[in-house]
Amino acid sequence: MAQPQGIHARRAALRLLDAVLRRGETLDIAFNGATKDVRKFEDKALARAIASEVLRWLVDLDALIDSATKKPLPDDAKARTVLRMMLAQWLRLGTPPHAVVATGLDMLAGGPRRLAHGVFSTLTGREASLPEVPTLPFEVARRWAERGPAIAAGLAVPPPLDLTLRDPAETEQWKVQLSADCLTPGHVRLPRGENVEKLPGFADGAWWVQDLAASLPARLLGKGEGRHVLDLCAAPGGKTLQLAAQGWQVTALDISKRRLDLLKENLKRTGLKAGTIRADALKWEPKHRFDAILLDAPCTATGTARRHPDVIHRIGARQIEEMAELQAALLERAQNWLKPGGTLVYATCSLEKEEGERQTENVSLTPVPVTREELPAGLGPTRDGWLRTDPGMLADEGGLDGFFIARWRAG
After folding, report:
1. Percent of the chain scored above 90 by pLDDT?
2. Domain ranges of the chain
3. Tens digits of per-residue pLDDT, 138-158?
4. Count of C-beta atoms within a 10 Å radius of residue 66
5. N or C end of the chain: smaller count of CB under 10 Å?
6. pTM (2 decimals)?
7. Given the residues 182, 233, 299, 349, the one annotated as active site
């Protein structure tokens, strides 16, 4: 018996969701294994899209399922996960109900299959719908407090594609050539879904993929003019490329060989220069001090929930505490490696205060407040002179990731 068209992509999506929700893996780590038997780029992208939409709207999808069953299905029941996928395809991806049924029910057998068909038919029959804004899990909403509703609104749709240009002077040229928007010099924004490697300028190294918020830490160090900068925890290298393009002599340090190899590939593609060191930043000792240090510290990455909605469900108090301890240790070391008058920029792509504002208490250097003039239009510093972004900001322009950024100068 022939299998329904697209079933491999759906089964890959099911494996992705199992990896995230049951094993606590990230979407990125689980992706290659989950899609190993999926050949087409489009089908791999579909598997990722289905899994991402389920994770983005999980609370609301479960509410719909529970409204159509006499007894709630267990959270880890296969029938519940398949129903989440079926509803996400219908309500978020616009897949016709008959196509959803053809591929969804094929992943179930016996009683669960009849149950899933009945629940889905009930919900389509009553023309069920999702709210305009995803409902955050209770603990996540509590952590994000007063900004939670705005952040949730920013998570409602996947983000656009941001590119950082090697030469900001070519901003207008690339804006026209790529039919892109632009929120600040050196940046262009395209609709999501583009095949990056086929875009003009990729092979020539004219740009690299980097969320607008992720480009701000390096921007706040300004022009290098041949001075020495240490990019701590550098891979996969977007900030290293920025710093090199801004005229810094860059030392890029990271503990991961795989990620450093990717950084080296990006340096080769763009023609930019940087020295690379594979080492543990908690054990490594520099041979000289630096004019500037950029510490984009390992973190929970909850600020990237627009494109990595798995963080909404994987990250809790334990992971936040572990990362905060690591960040404090890295800050303690990094601030001692600056020349007198040198600048330290600390950043995390996290929405958690433990990984941002509270880390500033671990630094004994002189704060250098971020100014509005240094930032894209629509963004501004906090009252303390730090920068805090989140997915609810710049919503009319397509939003941006959540980051905390702080800057200091050595005495």
Report:
1. 94
2. 7-125, 216-409
3. 999 999 999 999 999 999 999
4. 13
5. N
6. 0.94
7. 349
